[in-house]
Design goal:
Elements: H1 3-36, H2 41-64
Length: 76
């Protein structure tokens, strides 16, 4: 594996960790908003829907990256 490949893998790894942490912070904020503030039902449903949408996008990002030498998807 070349140094560029290793650098790209580390960048992908760091980005994945950052997105994972940001996702869970977002989930905590949404849960606090839904539980502690008087929001309409449609707003609550929309906020909860964005959690599932964000999770779907993060899963796609995780499983799209392939290893440089072996070609297998890194998410697996």
């Amino acid at each position: 594996m070349t140094k560029d490949d290793l650098k790209n893998l580390r960048r992908h790894h760091n980005a994945t960790i950052g997105l994972f942490v940001a996702f869970w912070l977002y989930v905590l904020v949404v849960i606090c908003l839904v539980e502690f503030f008087p929001l309409s039902q449609s707003t609550q449903k929309n906020l909860i829907g964005t959690i599932f949408g964000a999770a779907s996008v993060l899963c796609l990002l995780q499983f799209m990256k392939r290893g440089p030498d072996w070609g297998a998807k890194l998410g697996l």
